[in-house]
Amino acid sequence: MTKLLDAPASPARPSRPGRAGRGASGGGPTGPGRTPLSARGIATGIRNLLTSPKYGPVTVTAILFVAIFIVGGVRYRGFFSGQVFLNLLVDNSYLIVLAVGMTFVILTGGIDLSVGAVVALSGMIAASLLQTGWSPGVVIPLILVLTSVLGLLVGLMIHVFKVQPFIATLAAMFLARGLCYVISQNSISITDATFVELAVARIPLGGNLSITPSVVIALVVVAIAVWVLHATRFGRTVYAIGGGEHSGLLMGLPVARTKVLVYVISGFCSGLAGVLFTFYTLSGYPLTAIGTELDAIAAVVIGGTLLTGGYGFVLGSVLGVLVLGVIQTIITFEGTLSSWWTKIFIGALLLVFILQKVLTARRR
Amino acid sequence: MTHHTDPAAPVVEMRGISISFPGVKALDGVDFRMFPGEVHSLMGENGAGKSTLIKALTGVYLIDSGTIALAGEQVAFSGPAQAQAAGISTVYQEVNLLPNLSVAENIMLGREPRRFGAIDWRAMRRRSAELLAGLNLDIDPGSLLGDHSLAVQQLIAIARAIDVQAKVLILDEPTSSLDTDEVAELFRVIRSLKEQGVAILFVSHFLDQVYEICDRLTVLRNGKLVGEYLVEELLRIDLVQKMIGKELTTLDDLEQRARSVVVDESDAALFVNAAKLGRRGAIHPADLPIAAGEVVGLAGLLGSGRTEFARLLGGIDRADTGELTVRGKAIKLRTPRQAISHRIAFSSENRRDEGIVGDLTVRDNIVLALQADRGWFRPIPKRKQDELAQSYIQALNIRPGNPDALVRNLSGGNQQKVLLARWLAIAPRLLILDEPTRGIDIGAKAEIQKLVFTLAENGMSVLFISAELEEVLRLSHRIVVLRDRHVVADLENDGLTVDSLLALIADGSVSVEEPGEADAAAPAVTAGAAVAASATAPAPPTAPTTDETEGGRR
């Protein structure tokens, strides 16, 4: 650990011989012409990776996930199985979709507090329309369009009227939550055949492993998001806005359009997540998914995306969701702990992550 | 290309351009034109309207009146993207790139090569590597921009600007962070672009560079056009006078007066005395007596502890050793507020973040410290505020003379004057000025220097910090030299020169306690040390302005 506390040296600079004795695995007597693959070289490489603002946090999350999974495997019988891992995806597919949308928003330096309420609203719309006999083939696209339009309105409010994203999406959150009660004050159960079928359907992967259609949808969303962020001009503009909105503007990038579009994407993802959530619960309930927006934000932050924007990956957010999921699974396996402990662990984890970021920023 | 110097076919023609910000007329009916294959310079002091004119041309600001024609066709840009599409490429004064993206992306962003709808990363890296090679810049296009120095970032911004086959290339202060070799490299690129018929706007404070590379220049003053001249037909001294608009005698006056002031240095007149005052990690314990009516200069490189020492006296940071006495009474300063109650005012070098409040008016900024001193439950009556603001606007010649103008719309020099007015309003006995003339034009600079004199003559003590040694020498009765967080010398300003100060700053082995000896030892220091010091000395953006005047006077 002493090595990590050193100021980050440029990898090209040969290390001072006086320091060599402190190396992790005694790189002392290896003359000046050592290869970059020496223990010290690897240590420097790891240090650079961990303190890099781009890859550092997501690497830490990946290590953490594997570590928690191993701890679980050692402590509990039956934990170390493919299905336990797949269930993380099954149980959290809606959260993955939410986190994808949230990643777009946070990468631009914004925030979307409305997603939880929009999940509830799409559930309510789905349940009430299906109850009156609408076809799922109409209901689902309608929900996606409505939530996208809501996202568009939020985006325009933020861009045109220069409202803080926090306030604009807070307003959208109350609006969506209020609309849930307008539709109904009670839980509406879904009995539509298609929805029930999708809720119970399992896609076998062979060897006793299976996933749900929701997982497939979530993974498709993730794949599209990765492609959009990495390989399209729109995606790079998202990063550019997070890095410096004014600079992006002066570079002639379509800042306005992009800024509005990320909220449309987040709205769309919330709608889709709401639909996936109803596959999971088979009902609409106005009080559902309260606080889910904070879970999504936590997943994105734990996944290594900087809240001020500019740095982060969609796959990191997926990892963030998995970390949240695996903590929950461990608490289930433990059996004696109340599920509220999940929140305590997530809180502690967030604190650690924020501290880690502050410390890396100071060291750089 | 046939219209190489044909004045009949300008590629850019701006006529009667006016732009106003709340309370400020930034541009007033300015004409400006650029010709293909010519390097044009826009000259003027800070606040003359150069940046505003550039931003009008690049579509960042909308013009209130006037017309812009590009290659003979009337245009009206509503944003930078449109101007870029029309062939106007810009490198702004502050590097406007994205630290979180790769070098290649920063060069190509918005114009990325694409294959099957997706960004072709390999082609992008190849193209940017070519561009970087064209600038003799050997860096990995895949590295993060934020990992590079400011100078390299500046060159990357230039690589971005020349990639588009622009008709007009605007370089706003492109050389401020470049060293000599890099400037030469840039000039080579500019000349080759010029041969290709590109019209280049080169804005720089460095007069030598302007005379080396430019063919034509336009002078602005206070948002108005002074005139357009061919560089070879305009003498430097004439140029400087056109920029300033007044004779360069003010500074000479000052030097005369500096010599004539005699300071009473008896103990009775001692206003502040710092004895072994220090703070861990900031400044080693040091003594600093300041008499009433005395101007003490702090000289040293950036990071030598000059600001840190001043902050202890101003109560900004708390000293952990030593004692501070004000008029013979030992006091402890924990907050700036306590310092103010002892009539010690500290004006920070960080004008924007620790000085002015940009969104408040000139009047509000001026009364701020006085109001804080009175306490918030005893508001200063509106009429009193107006009187105060008016009197300081007149006394310090703050422009625009509108107490309701927002301070952020003022030029740097006028912001500095507002800041001075704020501290003068509390009638300080000791005024600490940290870099009060940085980044402001030479006219305002002379006015501020003159003010320091007048204040000292009226019995106010001044602690004056500046990276410009000429300025410290000109103003101070006594000069305290710092080096590596130590006070290394405390000298009467009697026969000191820039060179002897540089030697002291460079070589701390010179005797500390004996000013006479230090003085004698100074010339003995090798020239090499002095050169090294001047090479590492921070170059404030205005440093060349002083050179200009001296060059001009010769």
TrEMBL record, chain A:
Sorted UniProt keywords: Cell membrane, Membrane, Transmembrane, Transmembrane helix
Superkingdom assignment: Bacteria
Region (Disordered): 1-37
CDD domains the record matches: TM_PBP1_transp_AraH_like
Bias (Gly residues): 20-31
Transmembrane segments: 55-74, 86-107, 137-160, 166-184, 205-229, 260-282, 294-327, 339-359
GO cellular component, as recorded: plasma membrane
Extent of Low complexity compositional bias: 7-18
Principal subcellular localisation of the protein: membrane
Stored Pfam families: BPD_transp_2 (PF02653)
Name of protein: Sugar ABC transporter permease YjfF
Protein source organism: Agromyces tardus
Highest classification ranks of the organism: Bacteria, Bacillati, Actinomycetota, Actinomycetes, Micrococcales
